[in-house]
């Protein structure tokens, strides 16, 4: 009705919000959700999105760097790029080998969501064991009322799902896997308090991931100092999922980088300035890319407004090939419409 439309709030008017809207997934009818009717994805203008893969390839052939992009070598086998005007931000295209991408993708699905690590499902269902296996085996999650006052949830085979009336009181594990949005490793981040809760039970971050993060962090570390991975947040994105503009400001020492690894479908990353009013810089993140944010870059708003899950834009063919074995067809199916981000932090 005329006049009922709310005026845009202040947050809608910021440069960061405008960029998020520009890149977000819309369908051609203006809706945000795909439906049974095959809708077309609204085309997006990516002409302003920095492509570090193309820049890196041109640079390796002896070409020039675009204005505002600089390279630091720091002994790493791959060029590391920085942006003038965003000190403390580092982009390492293709930093992870295909094997590393596959290894951490698998771990992100099979072991990282395992208790005592927590996930977004904890608040509703408590700790869930073997979510990925349960989804693969088409199990359902049912309430186990056998321990009286404190019911728990467990995965059971389809055939064992109790029927109440004709209503099936279970949640398919596959739907819960699709709705897995985050898991936390090492020191547990408490999203409700937006802080680390050192009293929560936790396992150390796996050694191999620590070693990898230490190696990747080198370009952003003060000389002679070693990065100490203490916590990691794993983000899972399905088609249409976004990560809104935010700051990661709960760690004590901002001179230490956040080491952020991309796995799976291609995405757009927005790197803003110190306020939401600053125009963000958009760049593609592909599987295997690594971003470091240290020092002043820790004060910059950033987010992920878009992931690309279409066959021709996801850029995951090498991963698909790797997971083409029969045993991996469930993982392959997940991968085709998903992106995973592992970001590793030194908390103290
Ligand atoms: C985060 C984050 C970026 C990404 O989890 O804090 O900024 O690439 N992730 O998903
Ligand atoms: Mn972040």
Automatic annotation (TrEMBL):
**Cofactor binding: number and manner:** Binds 1 Fe(2+) ion per subunit.
Instruction: Please provide the Gene Ontology terms (biological process) for this protein.
Output: oxidative RNA demethylation
Spell out the InterPro entries in the cross-references: Alkb, AlkB-like, AlkB-like_sf, Oxoglu/Fe-dep_dioxygenase_dom
Instruction: Provide the transmembrane region boundaries.
Output: none
Amino-acid biosynthesis keyword on record: no
Q: Name one GO molecular function term.
A: oxidative RNA demethylase activity
Q: Which UniProt keywords apply?
A: Dioxygenase, Iron, Metal-binding, Oxidoreductase
Protein name (database record): Alpha-ketoglutarate-dependent dioxygenase alkB
Q: Which organism is it from?
A: Rhodamnia argentea
Q: Which gene encodes it?
A: LOC115739014
